[in-house]
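Hey Z.,

So I finally got round to the D-serine thing we talked about over coffee. Here's the setup:
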Amino acid sequence: MAWLDEPDDEMLAILQREYDRQNTTLQLIASENFASPAVMAFTGSVFTNKYSEGYPGKRYYGGNRFVDESEDLARDRVKVLFGAEHANVQPHSGANANMSVYQALLDVGDTVLGLSLDHGGHLTHGSPVNASGKLYEFVAYGLTASDERLDMDAVAEQARAISPKLIVAGATAYPRRIDPAPFREIADEVGALLMFDAAHIAGLIAGGAHPNPVPFCDVVTFTTHKTMRGPRGGCILSRAEYAAAIDKAVFPGSQGGPLEHAIAAKAVAFREAADPSFREYASQVVANAAALGDALAGHGFRLVSGGTDNHLLLVDLRTFDADLTGKQAQESLDRAGITLNRNSIPDDPRSPFVTSGIRIGTPSVTTQGMKEAQMVTIADLVARALRAFDDDTALDAIRAEVNSLCSGFTPYS
Ligand code: DSN
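And the result:
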């Protein structure tokens, strides 16, 4: 065998440290989750060895009989899961999925309406530093100043004013339910196409905890590794009339060889998400976020929009400590074994590198089996750590408590 006989001890030691980190600290990043051992086994399977440009039955390389079976199964499973007419499971990521949809549906310079990054949108929803903002004329809609909810009256007015070719619904840092029906009404009124970026909430949709945008939209994109709990990757669902254009935009339009090991793992994740137990999971994710929000509010934190309907909370730190930045909070919590990310709050006076807020999500801790009681404990640990944000001894003591909490819920014991 041409492979090395000796194990890569240096790399194994790094892997062990990451394994220990995931098992002994709290993962509260809203876009992360713990994939099942089956998903990880397929991600590390022999499908990684295969080149398969093209689609099942139409490949540019030989030897794709079983890759075709795998990709077909992934496509069939996800179509049934969401009731979609067409699926493309090849996007390497959510960003690739979104850019492929734009390439399929738009010409360079076309006008698109998308949620502002500052108000919870995504880089690929037209940020000027992203290709989406450079290639297309994105106009941003936002949240109401009064209750920090999607301002659908303003979306309708803006749509009438600019006649976009495409409206993009969906968010990465918005704690409320997004109803696809009013977006469809607005799109129909102005003759626009409608895309829903469901990256964050795909698992909540699959688990019946949030409304399914597929019947309302021309295209739905999502990532498979957030609330969906699958391997890292993207997916596009569409109406049949856009199938050929979308497939062409993914390959050869923007990607080369598909990651067939990830596609095999996506198939496994779609089966897991169709199981009745995933409905319980999705509803517990939402219940846990609500419980965590209530407990954090009790410690003096302001929740953007007053609470949550989904898997995440956007926390304005200023009512807790006017001088505490999101950056400092993230760093202090990291030391205490509580992993989350700083996040701008709507109309944040601080820069996106500093921020006045943090984003907290419950997908990972819910996979670990934590429930409302543990959310109260987590809120208490967060509040204590942020009160002692510059006291390393106190933060290290809190980390020991975090380790003890996690020892009852290790994801990969
Ligand atoms: N990085 C993802 C998130 O954290 O929401 C978005 O791409």
